[in-house]
Amino acid sequence: MQKIWIFIGRMNPPHLWHLNTIKKSIEENDKTIVFLWSANIKDSRNPYSFKEREKLLDNIYVNEIKSWKLIINLLNDQPSDKKWVNNLYSNITNLLKNNNSDFNIYCWDKKNDYAIKAIEENINELNFKNIKIIEISRKNIDISSTTIRELIDKGKFEKIKNLVDNNVYNYIINK
């Protein structure tokens, strides 16, 4: 049975906590699936499109993607949590062609994470056999994409340099 890790995040933009969490997953699991949500929305909270975020992650994880250890997929918002969770489930089963795997869903704040709340409230309607939600603290890397977006809006690019990967930084300052 494969051990699959699922990471759901807007990652708008992706920062070091996201990247460290993905790295941890790649090391500990057979396969990592990153779902970039709010993929169909472009606004102040989502300044980078799905394709932009996907390309940034593609450039960082070239080998992991080529070896199918990492899959990056979009996850569009839906009109209700139930439809959103069903969409997530459909995406997972379409990617894996089965659901006979152990699934670990990682988050940074189990109590306040919107995606985790929606999944927990609708889990009984899904056919996930072995699902576990794991919280990974941001204590060691306390970063927020919201803070990064605010610094970008203020033109304080130098302050984000240590919060994001060099590929992400170069993309942001050259956009």
Descriptive report:
It contains 7 helices and 5 strands. Helix 4 packs across helix 5 (114-122). A 5-stranded parallel β-sheet has the order 3-2-1-4-5, sandwiched between helices. The protein has 175 residues and is of the alpha/beta class. It is globular.
Q: Helix and strand layout, with pairings?
A:
Elements: E1 3-9, H1 16-28, E2 31-37, H2 50-60, H3 62-66, E3 70-75, H4 81-96, E4 102-107, H5 114-122, E5 130-135, H6 145-153, H7 166-174
Parallel strand pairs: 1-2, 1-4, 2-3, 4-5
Helix pairs in contact: 4-5
Features:
175 residues, alpha/beta, 5-stranded parallel sheet, 18% strand
Q: What is the approximate shape?
A: globular
What structural class do the secondary elements suggest?
alpha/beta
**Low-pLDDT sequence parts:** none
Q: Strand arrangement, largest sheet?
A: 3-2-1-4-5
Main beta-sheet annotation: 5 strands, parallel
The total strand number stands at 5
Q: Quote the beta fraction.
A: 15-25%
Q: What would the average pLDDT be, to the nearest integer?
A: 86
Helix proportion range: 40-55%
Separation, N- and C-terminal Cα atoms:
43 Å
Helices, by number, come to 7
Please provide a brief summary of the model.
Helix content is 41%, strand content 18%. A 5-stranded parallel sheet has the order 3-2-1-4-5, sandwiched between helices. The chain is globular.
